[in-house]
Amino acid sequence: MTPWLTVVGFGEDGLEGLSQAARRAVAEAEVLVGGTRHLAKVPPSKAERLDWGNGFLETLERLVPLRGRRVVVLASGDPMNFGAGASIAKRFDASEFVVIPNVGAFSLAAARLGWSLPDVETLTLHGRPVDMLNLHLAPGARLLILAENGATPAQVARLLVTRGYGPSAIAVFEHMGGANERRIDGVAAAWDRPRTADLNTIAVECRVGDGARVLARVPGLPEDAFEHDGQITKREVRAATLARLMPLPHQVLWDVGAGSGAIAIEWLRAERLARAVAIEREPARAAAIRRNAANLGVPYWKVV
Questions:
Q1: CB–CB of 252/268 below 8 Å?
Q2: Which residue in 122, 204, 255, 302 is deepest, having the highest Cβ count within 10 Å?
Q3: Is 127 left (phi over 0), alpha (psi -120 to 50) or beta?
Q4: What is 5-102's CATH topology?
Q5: Which 3 state secondary structure label does DSSP give 19?
Q6: How far apart are CA 42 and CA 28, in angstroms?
Q7: CATH code of the domain made up of 223-303
Q8: CA 282, chain centre distance (Å)
Q9: What is the mean pLDDT of each run of 10 residues along the chain (304 residues)?
């Protein structure tokens, strides 16, 4: 099938930052799709416009009957890195679309900080709980985080302080790549900005303070890392069990009679693309499993 859909990575510098191929795709589009911020950076034309404001998934479905027309989706930065391109790839066959990436927020932030990108954890909190950062906290760890909105940096700072990482350095980059770009530096324990610009990327260099609990991702966490009522697999047995289970990408673990959830939680901590379902008949234990999962950085799985 001839591609009819083009996904263009769009930055804060608008059309000026696009490659020749991307500019041509935008100029020849019959339908332009994107957020209000991106669409506003494209001068009026004959192209019909669809705004994500009506709901991302709903708007995505409205693209289906447009097959055969020249449709261009404007997506932030690198569309395949926590971007709209990944959702489009799930909905449409790869033969139907072309992606023209731009420089993404992670690359921009790493360039400004002088950080080697392969040595950094790249994360997003867009539509995800801030507790997922707990998995990545370690002395000397460097994190780059896509924010949900302007309140996200303060939420990250509070979590760092709560976990004993108050001395951690934070840098917030607003509107990177555009005329309004700004950098705000601080320390988690002294962070005093309740909000920043909604479009921001957060950099964290983890530094340990008093009261920090340092936990490795290697299975066999101490029992007191979990909230439990005595119904927990001992750490040595847990480590041996996880070694035999060998968590691998996309595999699913069913933890029946989960107790504290320790086996399933360590399964998820060991392999980021694995999945798990915990089944526990005691409501109090099920609630404890959810709290343990959040505290240990894997809050996004299913407890039945």
A1: no
A2: 204
A3: left
A4: Cobalt-precorrin-4 Transmethylase; domain 1 (3.40.1010)
A5: coil
A6: 12
A7: 3.40.50.150
A8: 32
A9: 92 93 96 92 93 83 93 95 92 95 96 98 95 97 97 98 97 95 98 96 97 93 95 93 97 95 96 96 96 96 92
